[in-house]
Design a protein that fits this description.
Strand content: 15-25%
Structural class: alpha/beta
Number of strands: 12
Largest sheet: 8 strands, mixed
Order of helices and strands: EEEHEEHEHHHHHEHEHEEHHEE
Helix content: 25-40%
């Protein structure tokens, strides 16, 4: 795909195609994200799910060019419609350029899973949230302070006039997460990437944070990408789901279809390993084994060694292509294709 300003407003707010993020290690190439495609519509919530080690968080970081060290985005496009309507391929920008910095925070932002490690311990919460406004607006310090106080109150932090001058360690876990959301939303971005936004919180606070994000989404019209392994978050908050395994999307469909009729053996196993409301209490299944190493992985189905339906000589001989179940449902499995179609090394849906 060649990014172009000719894309119309009917296009998705964010369209990612062929994303590949590799880590070049001394002992080989770790293919953390290996050809991922997805899109997010206007004011839509989508979920990217899978076990730990499947590439979800690296996908999130790649979208805003936050991968550092030995990590490198080696291929792909991430076309975002900015506030003014123009289209920009985020991955074509210099990660340290002024244009990339203008995209981060103003047009797209990320909520990290552990705010204590994301906030600086030596600056107040208010100063750090205000930095976004200093970077992206021409507001005075008095105006910045006023807007930060208003946003802290909007995300449910009591006494925001006092909290604005406190340091991260002075806030509870729930309050820090709310402050992280405030920082992500202070410039009213078009799209928010929520990377495990409630993992470190207790169930009650989790529910409050998710309710808050839904309310703010309705109010601001933003799109949200939930990166999570929590299927309850998916069931209650997103309209479409992308299931990742070993750096690839192995199934994608609507949330309703995914829970009712999953097609990929991995998705089926994943859903049977969690409790479902309304289903009789029974022993939950366990997905035997673990996600294999993504360092120089063999050209075969990534789930081959754990799949109860694996076909020797087929599943271990090539990587299956995404097969169309119908217009809203795709899955990467040889069981769904009579032709046993394999994916070309550089192809992507």
């Amino acid at each position: 795909m060649t990014p172009s300003a000719s894309l119309k407003s009917t296009e998705p707010r964010l369209k990612v195609e062929g994303l590949k993020t590799y880590f070049f290690l001394d002992h080989g190439i770790l293919k953390a994200v290996d050809g991922v495609d997805f899109h997010v519509g206007e004011a839509e919530s989508v979920g990217i799910i899978g076990e730990s080690g499947c590439g979800k968080s690296i996908t999130a970081q790649s979208m805003l060019q936050l991968v550092r060290g030995r990590g490198q985005i080696v291929a792909g496009h991430a076309v975002l419609r900015r506030k003014q309507g123009e289209m920009v391929d985020i991955l074509s920008l210099d990660p340290d350029s002024a244009e990339m910095r203008s995209v981060r925070g103003d047009d797209a932002s990320i909520i990290f899973q552990e705010p204590m490690t994301s906030f600086s311990p030596v600056h107040t919460i208010g100063f750090q949230i205000g930095e976004m406004l200093r970077l992206h607006t021409k507001l005075s310090e008095a105006q910045i302070r006023e807007r930060v106080i208003a946003m802290l109150g909007r995300v449910g932090i009591s006494n925001p006039e006092v909290r604005i001058d406190e340091y991260p360690h002075q806030l509870s876990g729930g309050m820090r997460q709310r402050a992280m959301i405030a920082m992500a939303l202070i410039c009213h971005p078009q799209i928010v990437i929520a990377d495990e936004p409630t993992t470190a919180l207790d169930v009650t606070i989790q529910a409050q944070i998710l309710d808050l994000m839904r309310d703010l989404q309705d109010e601001l019209g933003m799109s949200i990408v939930y990166i999570t392994h929590n299927m309850a978050v998916v069931a209650e908050n997103v309209s479409r789901v992308y299931v990742m395994y070993l750096g690839r999307v192995v199934e994608t469909t609507t949330t309703e279809r995914l829970f009712k009729d999953p097609k990929h053996p991995y998705t089926q196993k994943l859903l049977r390993s969690i409790p479902h409301p309304g289903r009789p209490v029974e022993r939950l299944e366990v997905i035997e084994g673990s996600v294999p190493s993504a360092v120089d992985p063999p050209r075969r189905c990534g789930f081959f060694t754990r799949c109860p339906s694996a076909m020797a000589g087929v599943c271990d001989a090539a990587i299956p292509a995404l097969t169309k179940v119908d217009d809203e449902h795709w899955a990467r499995c040889f069981l769904l294709s009579d032709e046993k179609e394999a994916e070309d090394e550089w192809s992507s849906l």
